[in-house]
Amino acid sequence: MSWRQPYWARRRIASLDAERDYVEINHLAFEVRYASPVFTHALFSIAFARQAAIPSIARTLYRDGKGASITATRKRSNDTLLFFGEFFKHGNSERGKQIADQLNRIHSRFAISNEDNLYTLATLMCEPMRMSVFLTGRNIFQPKEIRALYLFWYMIAEMLHISDIPADQDQMFEYYEQHSREYFAYTYDGRQVVESLADEFAERWYPPSMKAFGRQVYFSLFDDHLLETFRIKRPSLFHRALVRGHLWFYLRIWVRIKPDHADRSIIDIFSRDYEQYEISKAGPR
Length: 285
Known about the structure:
Radius of gyration: 18 Å
Structural class: mainly alpha
Largest sheet: none
Order of helices and strands: HHHHHHHHHHHHHHH
């Protein structure tokens, strides 16, 4: 990016075709334009919590307290975000297919149904739109970005052997909302996963003296249905107003007027805990 082209990423998106260039559009939109380290991690952590609200998924994640979501929460979060970054970077190229094979080998250790895999996929595809409406009152993403997001995750689903994918982005969002309404339920396993996610979020972005504050920031991103599902006390009005007011300004105002960031990848952010990072190091040891 040069000083002559402060909005280079959105201009590049405008020149692309969502049906053909969806990998690049996703990279430009969700790594360059809208991404920031805290927001990316928060969005992923909320999607993860919504997965844990499904009892069968929570059971797989918790595994009697032995799941990585409990024993190595930060690494588990880093690993997942790094897989996303690799897919943004490589798409369904030969390298992308090799990375998908690695992820399939990790998942093959667990008896995960296609339905649970499909719902997990839906959280990744739909949660950016749902959260933007929840936080700002409207969907901030352009139709081209929404279509590209659907096509990108559809591509990933095929590489991960997930079937019965809804036919378009509208049907996928309808499936996501309906599945959440029907199958969210409290479980001890899910509550423990969410408590670990809250601790990890607070410890990553706040000093130890502010851990309680960081947890309240995280829970302020939960809607009432998610709070009720996990039987978590609603955060104070102060915390909710602070968090949602900040994100309303960030999503509705700041990302519209600020110059586009220089080209970047979430790999650069979430690989910092690794010495000599390589995606082959991701996943259970």
